[in-house]
Specification:
The protein has 321 residues and is of the alpha/beta class. The protein is built from 10 helices and 16 strands.
């Protein structure tokens, strides 16, 4: 059995999703949707799909079983609403939306329609984070007492994305989703910092505490695309994942070179890594085999928390997300 999936948005993320789905044994790319006809048609030709001009039109096109929304976040609502109205299992790349109100509106639509929905928080597909979640669920470190999240990227990220999104929506949503996955709902956030580097203190409804630091301010030649990691302290133990050093070094004529071996690497001619596992999971969701690992409510909560961190830092007061 194979299913036909529409990819809405033919930019960077849409191209990755289209390739991964095209290579998947259980799926085909039926439709590519984009407002840029030249870009959309080029991607459609590459994966053997038909091109549909417009986001909502692509999400509701005939002959489609499921939809992946890969547009910029401020354009997520229209194709998502169209896909849900058509009863099609839907994945929306993170962040779910650019405002808390629209993220909550999407979550309400999912609840109303009952259509399977995956919020595309890809770190849940990283084997080490998944192993941390399993250890917590199994009680191997006892009750979670604190979570510390860090993700500080490069100045190049700010230069490439700063005109259309914010540090909170680009990086902090990742970390807040993982923090909630490990420690539960967040009760209050106090933030400090600016648009390039944000730090926050968290209190969870469980009684656990946490810290978060996100930025896009490191020099572009920083190894490992920056620095990131998560530490969880429990009553009876500790969990720690460090990102950055991937155990591999490539040195060229100009010095150390970075290469992706975790997110979406090319593995013997096929897309691998976290994104490929996310695609596997969504295909299973669309086939009705599994429940989405990250719900619309989870996606909305991550958006609210990220924006709360930003608001708290600006207003210099604690915020309830």
């Amino acid at each position: 059995m194979t299913i036909s999936i529409a990819v809405v948005g033919a930019g960077f993320m849409g191209q990755l999703w289209a390739r991964a789905l095209h290579e998947h044994m259980g799926a085909t790319v039926g439709v590519i949707g984009d407002v840029d006809a030249e870009r959309g048609k080029a991607l459609a030709d590459k994966v053997g799909a038909r091109f549909v001009h417009g986001a909502a039109e692509a999400a509701s096109a005939q002959g489609i079983d499921a939809v992946v929304v890969c547009t910029p976040e401020h354009l997520h609502l229209e194709p998502t609403a169209a896909a849900l109205a058509a009863g099609r299992p839907t994945c929306v790349e993170k962040p779910t939306a650019h405002t808390a109100e629209i993220a909550d509106e999407i979550a309400a639509l999912v609840e109303k329609t009952g259509v399977p929905f995956l919020a595309g928080h890809v770190l849940r597909m990283e084997p080490r984070y998944a192993a941390m979640k399993t250890a917590i669920t199994q009680g191997r470190i006892g009750k979670v007492l604190s979570v510390r999240n860090e993700r500080i990227g490069l100045q190049a990220d700010r230069a490439r994305l700063g005109a259309r999104t914010t540090l909170a929506l680009y990086y902090a949503v990742h970390e807040f989703d993982i923090a909630r996955w490990f420690a539960g709902d967040i009760e209050v956030i106090h933030g400090e910092g600016n648009s390039d580097l944000l730090s926050g203190a968290l209190r969870f409804k469980s009684g656990a505490t946490g810290t978060i630091q996100v930025g896009w301010c490191l020099p572009d030649k920083t190894p490992g695309y920056g620095t990131a990691g998560v530490t969880v302290v429990g009553e009876n133990g500790l969990l720690r994942v460090g990102q950055g050093d991937n155990g591999m070094i490539i040195v060229g004529g100009d010095g150390l070179l970075d290469t992706d071996v975790a997110y979406a690497p090319d593995v013997n001619g096929k897309l691998g890594g976290m994104l490929a596992r996310e695609v596997d999971h969504f295909v299973d969701v669309a086939m009705g085999k599994v429940v989405p690992i990250c719900s619309a409510a989870d996606g909305a909560a991550a958006v609210r928390a990220a924006l709360a961190l930003e608001t708290s830092a600006r207003d210099r007061k604690s915020v309830v997300p």
